[in-house]
Design a protein that fits this description.
GO terms for molecular function: proteasome binding. With about 220 residues, the protein is α/β, with parallel strands linked by helices. About 25% of the residues lie in helices and about 20% in strands. Strands 3-6-7-8-5-10 form a six-stranded mixed beta sheet. The protein has a two-stranded antiparallel ribbon with strand order 1-2. Strands 4-9 form a two-stranded parallel ribbon.
């Protein structure tokens, strides 16, 4: 590098500095700062909360026998279950998910209101192999795999059929018809080529735009 007076000097290598910084060991002060950052992230009202998800079952079986599992994700889908499926007396609550994150907090109680954040499991009394999951709470990204692992880890997955109920705002459903003419409840389905059984509602019309679905 040439200076103003024509003197040639060697410019310091940034690569060497980066290597030295990477090689520098973490000091006790660095560890303390990192711990404080982690605590601040999970602190609410002065208490440290655990982000571990707990799945509590009222039944004694170690592995639930399940042939059909219907999962309603989001408040609209959970409200759909309450209005059209769970309004009868043929379902019983068998489990609950207890979790906490920045956006919601659920408890182990099964006596919930429609405005509460909750995740409950129901079993069909006439056919105990049919289960429902009504999930109105927000599951954080770093909790989603844990939720999936713990919920499905309690079930026998051989021959299991899983149905995901999502909502129109999530699916971004497009149609030329007026929404005022759509029959309630309005349902459309997506399925893979491998799924050969009869679906419970018409398939999604083509062409259409579907994005941000919770399951691929």
């Amino acid at each position: 590098m040439a200076t103003f007076f024509g003197e040639v000097v060697v410019a310091p290598s940034r690569a060497g500095l980066d290597e030295e910084e990477e090689a520098r060991e973490e000091t006790p002060e660095d560890r303390e700062i990192r711990r404080e950052i982690e605590k601040k992230r999970y602190r609410q009202r002065g208490e440290i909360k655990e982000r571990e998800i707990q799945v509590l079952w009222s039944c004694a079986e170690e592995s639930l026998v399940c042939s059909r599992f219907i999962v309603a994700i989001g408040r609209n889908a959970a409200a759909f279950l309450s209005s059209f499926i769970l309004d009868s007396v043929c379902w019983e609550v068998i489990g609950v998910v207890k979790l906490w994150n920045e956006w919601c907090k659920t408890s182990s109680t099964t006596n919930v209101l429609a405005t509460d954040s909750f995740c409950l499991f129901y079993r069909l009394i006439s056919d105990p192999t049919v289960l429902l999951c009504q999930c109105s709470c927000y599951v954080a990204e770093d909790q989603q795999f844990q939720w999936l692992e713990k919920v499905f880890g309690s079930m026998q997955k051989k021959g299991l059929q899983v149905t995901i109920l999502s909502t129109c705002p999530v699916a971004d459903y497009k149609t030329q018809e007026s929404t005022l003419t759509l029959v309630s409840p309005f349902l459309r389905a997506l399925k893979t080529k491998e799924f050969q059984e009869q679906v419970c509602c018409p398939l999604l019309e083509q062409p259409n735009i579907v994005r941000d679905l919770p399951a691929a």
